């Protein structure tokens, strides 16, 4: 009887530990990807209501435009399959070759560095994620 109790206890501990480890370890998404038609940004935010990418190519989501107001529809990401991974493809017609700084905006008020991209740049006292678009996308 003692052996069965010990085995049940060990089984419960294994199940609890494995589910906890799974919750702690997040999947690793790729950094922004240069696609044939544009740059694909991905961000995991399972509890977010809205996610967007704001950068120097889109007036920081409208904040550096004439209105000075953040517009969550600029650089808006979608989570089509509702798996918590938000994506947006920024066409090359909207993002020119060169160095571009950006941040991910969650629920219109939380601006964060892209955890999938280790490249950063500090300018004007602000550290932002950095992406470099080559002259000919796909050829580095």
Keywords, please?
140 residues, alpha+beta, Immunoglobulin-like, 5-stranded antiparallel sheet, 3-stranded antiparallel sheet, elongated
Question: What does the secondary structure layout of this molecule look like, with pairings?
Answer:
Elements: H1 2-24, E1 33-34, E2 38-44, E3 51-55, E4 85-91, E5 98-106, E6 110-112, E7 120-123, E8 126-133
Antiparallel strand pairs: 1-2, 2-4, 3-5, 5-6, 5-8, 7-8
Question: What is this structure, in a nutshell?
Answer:
Helices cover 16% and strands 32% of the residues.
Q: Can you describe what's shown?
A:
It is elongated and about 75 Å long. Mean pLDDT is 86; it is low at 18-23. Helices cover 16% and strands 32% of the residues. Strands 3, 5, 6, 7 and 8 form a five-stranded antiparallel β-sheet that branches. It has a three-stranded antiparallel β-sheet with strand order 1-2-4, with no helix packed on it. The chain has a single domain (28-133), classed as Immunoglobulin-like, CATH 2.60.40.10. It is of the alpha+beta class and 140 residues long.
Any idea what the shape is? elongated
Oligomer: single chain
What is the CA-based Rg, rounded? 20 Å
Distance between the termini: 66 Å
Query: What portion of residues belong to β-strands?
Result: 25-35%
Write down the CATH topology: Immunoglobulin-like
The ordered string of helix (H) and strand (E) elements is HEEEEEEEE
């Amino acid at each position: 009887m003692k052996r069965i109790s010990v085995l049940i206890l060990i089984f419960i501990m294994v199940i609890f530990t494995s589910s906890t480890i799974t919750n702690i370890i997040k999947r690793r998404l790729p950094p922004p990807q240069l696609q044939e038609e544009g740059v694909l940004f991905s961000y995991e935010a399972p509890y977010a209501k809205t996610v967007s990418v704001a950068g120097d190519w889109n007036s920081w989501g409208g904040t550096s435009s004439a209105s000075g107001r953040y517009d969550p529809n600029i650089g808006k990401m979608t989570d089509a399959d509702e798996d918590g991974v938000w994506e947006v493809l920024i066409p090359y017609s909207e993002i020119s070759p060169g160095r571009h700084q950006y941040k991910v905006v969650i629920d219109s008020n939380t601006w964060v560095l892209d955890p999938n991209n280790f490249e950063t740049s500090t300018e004007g006292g602000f550290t932002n994620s950095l992406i470099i678009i080559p002259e000919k996308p796909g050829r580095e």
